[in-house]
C-alpha cells in the first residue's frame, strides 16, 4: 500500500467506541459519576454498535450535552443575609422531544452528577415510548433545615434565572431529590409570575393546579409494577415476601406503599443518617407515620423507633443491605449499594435487586448481583414510571384535560409493561441471556440514535 493511500485511509478512518469514550473522558477528567453512567451504557450497547458501526459517531454526539446553563442564585435568608448558590440545567438530548427531567436540590449537586442524571434520563425517557427528550438540573442548595420562607425565596431566585430557558415545547423540569410538592409550587408560581403563562412548563404540579393524578406515586408504583413482571416470570410473587427498601422520600415511600398493598413485608427504610428495621414489616399506619414525619415534619427516620414502634431497631449509619430479605429496592441515591453490600445480599439469600433510584448500584455491585444470578433491573427502566406520568401530565396540559386516577394508573401500568417487554425482547434479539440491563440500554439507545440520525448532524 502506498504512503499516500494509507494517509488517506487514516484521514477517513473513524474513531473506535473506546476512542470516543476516552476522548470524552479527557475533555472532562473531573466527572466520575458521568463516566460511570457512560461506561455502563457503552458496555451494554457494544453488540448493537458492532451490528451498526455507523452509530459510533452518534454516540460521540450523545456524550456532549446540547446545552449547559450554569447560573448564580442569590437570595436572602431569614436573617437578611445574602446567600449564594449555584444553579444548573443540562439539556442532554432533544432528539425524541423537549428536554425533560427533574431538578435536584442537594449539597452534592455539581456538573458531573447532573450530566450522569441527564445521560440516564436520555435512555429512560426513550424507553417510555413518549415524545420526550432529556434534561436534568438543580442546585447545591440544601432545603433541609431551611424555613418555608427561605425555600420560597430560593426557588423564586432559581426560577428567575431559568424561566427564559424552559417551556412546554422546550424543556420541562420536575422534581428529584430535595424538590417535592412544596418546591415545585414555589418554582412554578414564579415561572407564571414572570411569563404570565400557565402552560404546564413543569410537571409534578398539584392536581388542583395543573398536575396529574398519580404523578406523586408514579415512580414508586411503577418500580413495583416493573419488578412484579420479573418476579412473576420466575414464578414468584411479592405476597409475604420480605422487602428491603432504602430511602424514605418520594420513591421509597410509594414503592413501600405498593409493596404493602400486594402483601409484602417492607422491613426497612432509611435516610442519610441511618436505617430502621421492622422485623415483621411496616403496617399501613407505620408507613403513614413515616410519610408524615418525612413530608410534613421533615424529621429523621430514627424518630419512628422513638415515637411509633417498640419492635423496630434503628442503626445509626446503617444501610438496609445488612438485613435479610427476599428482594431489595434501592430508592435513595447514587452508589448507595456497593460491591460489599451486594455480596452481603447474595450471602443473605436475597433473590432480586430492583433499582428505584438513579444508578444506586456501583459497577462492582452490579457485577456481584449478576454473578450471584439475582434478578436485576436497572433504574433507567424500573424507575421510568415517574417521568412516564410526567409525560402524561404534559399531554393533559396540552389538551386542557384532566384524567381520573384509574386512567392514569392503567396507562402507567402499560408503560412499565412495555418497557419490560422492550428490555426483554432486545436482550433476546442479541442473545444476552435475559440481561434486562443490556436490553434496556440497547432499546433506549437505539430509539435515540435513530432519531438523531433522522435529524441530521448537529
Ligand atoms: N422523584 C421521582 O419521580 C424520581 C426520582 N428518582 C430517583 O430516586 C431517588 C430518590 O429520589 P426522591 O425519592 O425523589 O427524592 P427525595 O428527596 O424525596 O428522597 C430522597 C431520600 O433519599 C435519602 N437519602 C439521600 N441521600 C442518602 C444517603 N446517602 N443514604 C441514605 N439515604 C439517603 C433521603 O433521606 C430521602 O429519604 C434519586 O436517585 C432520584 O434521582 C428517579 C426517578 C424519578
Ligand atoms: O418527571 C420528571 O420529569 C422527572 C423524573 C426524573 O427526574 C427521573 O426520572 O429521574
UniProtKB/TrEMBL annotation:
<feature type="binding site">
    <location>
        <position position="390"/>
    </location>
    <ligand>
        <name>substrate</name>
    </ligand>
</feature>
<feature type="binding site">
    <location>
        <position position="175"/>
    </location>
    <ligand>
        <name>substrate</name>
    </ligand>
</feature>
<keyword id="KW-0560">Oxidoreductase</keyword>
<dbReference type="InterPro" id="IPR050724">
    <property type="entry name" value="Glu_Leu_Phe_Val_DH"/>
</dbReference>
<dbReference type="InterPro" id="IPR006095">
    <property type="entry name" value="Glu/Leu/Phe/Val/Trp_DH"/>
</dbReference>
<dbReference type="Pfam" id="PF00208">
    <property type="entry name" value="ELFV_dehydrog"/>
</dbReference>
<dbReference type="GO" id="GO:0006537">
    <property type="term" value="P:glutamate biosynthetic process"/>
</dbReference>
<dbReference type="GO" id="GO:0004354">
    <property type="term" value="F:glutamate dehydrogenase (NADP+) activity"/>
</dbReference>
<dbReference type="Pfam" id="PF02812">
    <property type="entry name" value="ELFV_dehydrog_N"/>
</dbReference>
<protein>
    <recommendedName>
        <fullName>Glutamate dehydrogenase</fullName>
    </recommendedName>
</protein>
<feature type="domain" description="Glutamate/phenylalanine/leucine/valine/L-tryptophan dehydrogenase C-terminal">
    <location>
        <begin position="212"/>
        <end position="456"/>
    </location>
</feature>
<dbReference type="InterPro" id="IPR014362">
    <property type="entry name" value="Glu_DH"/>
</dbReference>
<dbReference type="InterPro" id="IPR033922">
    <property type="entry name" value="NAD_bind_Glu_DH"/>
</dbReference>
<feature type="binding site">
    <location>
        <position position="250"/>
    </location>
    <ligand>
        <name>NAD(+)</name>
    </ligand>
</feature>
<dbReference type="InterPro" id="IPR036291">
    <property type="entry name" value="NAD(P)-bd_dom_sf"/>
</dbReference>
<comment type="subunit">
    <text>Homohexamer.</text>
</comment>
<feature type="binding site">
    <location>
        <position position="100"/>
    </location>
    <ligand>
        <name>substrate</name>
    </ligand>
</feature>
<feature type="binding site">
    <location>
        <position position="219"/>
    </location>
    <ligand>
        <name>NAD(+)</name>
    </ligand>
</feature>
<dbReference type="InterPro" id="IPR006096">
    <property type="entry name" value="Glu/Leu/Phe/Val/Trp_DH_C"/>
</dbReference>
<dbReference type="InterPro" id="IPR046346">
    <property type="entry name" value="Aminoacid_DH-like_N_sf"/>
</dbReference>
<feature type="binding site">
    <location>
        <position position="121"/>
    </location>
    <ligand>
        <name>substrate</name>
    </ligand>
</feature>
<keyword id="KW-0520">NAD</keyword>
<feature type="region of interest" description="Disordered">
    <location>
        <begin position="1"/>
        <end position="29"/>
    </location>
</feature>
<feature type="binding site">
    <location>
        <position position="124"/>
    </location>
    <ligand>
        <name>substrate</name>
    </ligand>
</feature>
<keyword id="KW-0547">Nucleotide-binding</keyword>
<dbReference type="InterPro" id="IPR006097">
    <property type="entry name" value="Glu/Leu/Phe/Val/Trp_DH_dimer"/>
</dbReference>
<feature type="site" description="Important for catalysis">
    <location>
        <position position="176"/>
    </location>
</feature>
<dbReference type="GO" id="GO:0000166">
    <property type="term" value="F:nucleotide binding"/>
</dbReference>
<dbReference type="GO" id="GO:0005829">
    <property type="term" value="C:cytosol"/>
</dbReference>
<feature type="active site" description="Proton donor">
    <location>
        <position position="136"/>
    </location>
</feature>
<comment type="similarity">
    <text>Belongs to the Glu/Leu/Phe/Val dehydrogenases family.</text>
</comment>
Amino acid at each position: 500500500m502506498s504512503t499516500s493511500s494509507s494517509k488517506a485511509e487514516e484521514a477517513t478512518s473513524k474513531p473506535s467506541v473506546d476512542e470516543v469514550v476516552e476522548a470524552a473522558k479527557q475533555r472532562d477528567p473531573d466527572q466520575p459519576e458521568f463516566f460511570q453512567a457512560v461506561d455502563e451504557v457503552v458496555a451494554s450497547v457494544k453488540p448493537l454498535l458492532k451490528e451498526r458501526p455507523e452509530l459510533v459517531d452518534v454516540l460521540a454526539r450523545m456524550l456532549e450535552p446540547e446545552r449547559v446553563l450554569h447560573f448564580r442564585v442569590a437570595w436572602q435568608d431569614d436573617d437578611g443575609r445574602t446567600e449564594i448558590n449555584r444553579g444548573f440545567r443540562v439539556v442532554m438530548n432533544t432528539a425524541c422531544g423537549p428536554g425533560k427531567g427533574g431538578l435536584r436540590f442537594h449539597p452534592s449537586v455539581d456538573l458531573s452528577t447532573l450530566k450522569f442524571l441527564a445521560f440516564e434520563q436520555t435512555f429512560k425517557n426513550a424507553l417510555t415510548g413518549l415524545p420526550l427528550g432529556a434534561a436534568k438540573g438543580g442546585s447545591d442548595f440544601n432545603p433541609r433545615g431551611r424555613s418555608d420562607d427561605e425555600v420560597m425565596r430560593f426557588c423564586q431566585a432559581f426560577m428567575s434565572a431559568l424561566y427564559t430557558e424552559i417551556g412546554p415545547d422546550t424543556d420541562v423540569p420536575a422534581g428529584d431529590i430535595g424538590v417535592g410538592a412544596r418546591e415545585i409550587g414555589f418554582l412554578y408560581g414564579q415561572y407564571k409570575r414572570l411569563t404570565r403563562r400557565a402552560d404546564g412548563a413543569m410537571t409534578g404540579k398539584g392536581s388542583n393546579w395543573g398536575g396529574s393524578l398519580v404523578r406523586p406515586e408514579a415512580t414508586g408504583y411503577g418500580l413495583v409494577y416493573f419488578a412484579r413482571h420479573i418476579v412473576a416470570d420466575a414464578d414468584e410473587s411479592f405476597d409475604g415476601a420480605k422487602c428491603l427498601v432504602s430511602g424514605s422520600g418520594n420513591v421509597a415511600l410509594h414503592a413501600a406503599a405498593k409493596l404493602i398493598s400486594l402483601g409484602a413485608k417492607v422491613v426497612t427504610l432509611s435516610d442519610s443518617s441511618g436505617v430502621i428495621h421492622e422485623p415483621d414489616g411496616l403496617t399501613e399506619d407505620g408507613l403513614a407515620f413515616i410519610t408524615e414525619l418525612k413530608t410534613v415534619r421533615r424529621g429523621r427516620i430514627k424518630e419512628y423507633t422513638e415515637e411509633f414502634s417498640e419492635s423496630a431497631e434503628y442503626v445509626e449509619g446503617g444501610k438496609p443491605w445488612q438485613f435479610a430479605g427476599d428482594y431489595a429496592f434501592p430508592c435513595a441515591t447514587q452508589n448507595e449499594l456497593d460491591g460489599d453490600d451486594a455480596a452481603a445480599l447474595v450471602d443473605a439469600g436475597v433473590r432480586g435487586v430492583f433499582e428505584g433510584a438513579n444508578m444506586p448500584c456501583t459497577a462492582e455491585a452490579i457485577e456481584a448481583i449478576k454473578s450471584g444470578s439475582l434478578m436485576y433491573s436497572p433504574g433507567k427502566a424500573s424507575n421510568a414510571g415517574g417521568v412516564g406520568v410526567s409525560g402524561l401530565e404534559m399531554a393533559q396540559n396540552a389538551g386542557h384535560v384532566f384524567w381520573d386516577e384509574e386512567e392514569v394508573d392503567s396507562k402507567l401500568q402499560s408503560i412499565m409493561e412495555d418497557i419490560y417487554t422492550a428490555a426483554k425482547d432486545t436482550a433476546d434479539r442479541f442473545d444476552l441471556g435475559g440481561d434486562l440491563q443490556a436490553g434496556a440500554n440497547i432499546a433506549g439507545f437505539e430509539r435515540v440514535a435513530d432519531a438523531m440520525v433522522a435529524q441530521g448532524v448537529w
